[in-house]
Amino acid sequence: MEFDFTPWLNLAIRWLHFITGIAWIGSSFYFVWLDNHLEKPKEPKKGMSGELWSVHGGGFYHKQKYAVAPEQMPENLHWFKWEAYFTWMSGFALLAVIYYLGADLFLIDKSKMALSQAEAIGISLAFLVGGWVFYDGLCRSPIGQNNKLTGIIWFASLVAAAYALTQIFSDRAAFIHIGAIVGTAMAANVFMVIIPNQKKVVAALTAGETPDPKLGQIGKQRSLHNNYMTLPVLFLMISNHYPMTFSNPYNWVIVAAIGLVGVLVRHFFNLRHKGKTSPALVVAAVALFLAIAFFAAEAEKAGRVEVADDQVTFEKVQAVIGKHCVMCHSATPTHEFFEEAPAGAMFDTADQLVQYAPTIMEQAVKSDIMPLGNETGMTDEERALLGKWIEDGMKR
Q1: Of the residues 66, 68, 148, 232, which has the fewest C-beta atoms closer than 10 A?
Q2: Inter-axis angle of helices 147-168 and 251-273, to 10 degrees?
Q3: Mean pLDDT computed over 16-28
Q4: Three-class SS of residue 64?
Q5: How far apart are the C-alpha atoms of 165 and 175, rounded to whole Å?
Q6: SS3 (DSSP) at 206
Q7: Helix-strand-coil split of the chain, %, nearest 5
Q8: What tens digit of pLDDT does each residue of 29-87 get?
Q9: What is the DSSP letter of 343?
Q10: What is d(CA 291, CA 298) in angstroms, rounded to the nearest whole number?
Q11: Minimal CA–CA distance to 90: which of 134, 1, 35, 24?
Q12: DSSP code for 311
């Protein structure tokens, strides 16, 4: 048997994405926390707008912030940019390895659109680039001077993109792409706006000139936007583990609501860092989360196909499994992409079907993750048959 390096490549890129993402989020949250805790300097220096004393790891730290820049450029200046760059690059690499190379299985849902691999990848890239172009244009427009209005319009555009993507790609891929759109905007904020503006400030100081204060103000605005987008992106990164969100008939509503919960939570902490308490935000976030969970459950129940008891037989269950599942989930897979059963799950015998019944329920009944890309055309009636058999005790 030939060694398949693809899973290891997937693991390496995913791990890199995880590590760099933690580094980026950590530094982002820290600097927002720092900015919100700054106090008026007791011994002010020219250009200094705030300071903060803190203790950590057995040592005391004294931080000072300059509204525009210090009078002289320090010898050693630490930049925070590579965390963002590597998070995006590893995330895009993961998108390419899973959803572009495996487009037929993970990206395309032919029951929605019979796309070719090239067409699907082109649409994906168009959404990523288009999202940044729209967001950046919004920020540079007169509307961009109003952060609240900018946030509302950007949120509305993402909801529209979510609806469109769920009509084009597989549900799981649609959620990942919403996260990729937001992540691309966040990384581009750093690469295209924040860092270039900081370099202009450094260049002005080095040349003995007075930096333009607008450069710092624009950078701070984009950094604030990134701060509010972080928690929704984190949810979207792990959304593929929760089929009840992306496989729901109203998945685009669910992703919008959960994203809004993340924004509310982030806003609560931003206010708290400034010494303000807002319990109403916590209540609103919890209430919205519970409401969307109830809504999702009811929507899933309403869309369920009913199967009569006398229609469910073990022979019919075996026929459905044989038609849609055992090409991969078998001791001897016949699918061109699998040399052994994924996750070791095999459905060759009745005992194995009973053993993996909970997994079948989650992956093929409550969601349409399996078969991958629904390449065998599994129907709602067949999924309902499997679900009814499992719920009724898996009679043989």
Answers
A1: 148
A2: 150
A3: 92
A4: strand
A5: 8
A6: helix
A7: 70, 5, 25
A8: 888 888 888 888 888 788 788 999 999 888 999 998 887 778 777 778 888 899 999 99
A9: G
A10: 11
A11: 24
A12: G
